[in-house]
Amino acid sequence: MSTQKPNNDALWGGRFSEATDAFVQEFTASVQFDQRMAGEDIRGSRAHARMLGVQGVLTADEVNQIDEGLKQIEAEIQAGEFEWSIAREDVHMNIEARLTDLIGDVGKKLHTGRSRNDQVATDIRLWLRSQIDAIKGQIQRLQSGILTLADEHADLIMPGFTHLQTAQPVTFGHHLLAWYEMLDRDYQRFDDAQSRMNRCPLGAAALAGTTFPIDRHFTARELGFDAPTRNSLDSVSDRDFAMEFLSAASITSIHLTRMSEELIIWASAQFNFIDLPDRFCTGSSIMPQKKNPDVPELVRGKSGRVVGHLMSLLMLMKSQPLAYNKDNQEDKEPLFDTVDTLMGCLMSFADMVPAIVPNADAMREATLKGFATATDLADYLVRKGLPFRDAHDVVGAAVGAGVANGRDLAEFSLAELQAFDARIEADVFDVLTLEGSVNARDHFGGTAPNQVRRQVAEARARLG
Ligand code: ARG
To answer: Taking every annotated instance into account, which residue ranges of this chain make up the domain Argininosuccinate lyase C-terminal (predicted)?
Structure first.
């Protein structure tokens, strides 16, 4: 960052009689972070200049000079040779001032018929739109890894939990498909947010529009927007698209914390359901036996930043009168950090999930312990003619006896079971086995291995 004298380069200095306080200059600048949108800013400026050319506001030669100048600036930025200046406040004025350095007075015509207010609103939309593409790509990569693992373990039985208490046997593949579904909705939310933000604010100028004969449909098309925004005041003040993005990011982050928490529990010595490959874990500097699930723990922790950024932006926008206010400059850092944080979380999950190694024996043993097939016995009695509520009672008594004697239902003899209800016959053992239990839930959305394989195939076809 160069240390120019205050306001030497400010593009708005005409009505000012003294220089901006040096601290205020630094305090109000945004170039330290908004230079990240330089590519989008240049793209927007090139489209704006072309439009001014087509409309006869600029000559073909002027448009050409501006275009060449902007291309050179882009190359300078990419090469790391561009000198960003705090005195030039933000990415927009840094680029515009450099353009004038390069091509002289023609550079000063670029800002005809626009304002930084519509310019920044355009830049953020362009930037966020492409970042969401990257996020969606990572979500799909994670989903694809989940499907591979689910398919491989469509038959693997584990306890399904409610209240973190053993509830009913499920298949590991089925559990993984629940994660897939959460991510599927996340993907749709991003997709939806993206389509709503894909309107071009350019041409709204400061707030009221411009006196020049602009063609807003032209710039919208050039920049790949579906249409121009409809109201100039709204165009420069709307940040819903950013709030919406942060909401979608927060929900995804929270989903990732749920998956993280399960991985952390499953990887504990007490559960021992899975092994996380060493490359996703670290050790302890004091306890030689430790292998810590750092990646899921960090992903769980990072959700705090993402949800915090959503809160920041909501508070930033609260009660702001129309149209643009300088407050809005504070929208960028939360957005940037959210994108970086979420991308990191998704990328590490997409790498890690397919590498999870389940421990079939431990899962089976745990499922056998918690009376997981009690509901199957109740359903069996219903099929033998008992109303469900009475069947629930009978099985409750059997479970009570099992707890007292340290035995699972399948470990009772037929005679012992018949003591609870005479309708019980030898075929009861078919439903008391874990395989019998999961295979019986063979309907759309159920846990049966058949259904898991079917869902995997359908999801694969959707993912493409
Ligand atoms: N740096 C500003 C921002 O991020 C650009 C828009 C400034 N507009 C203004 N009228 N001061 O919001």
So the answer is: 371-439
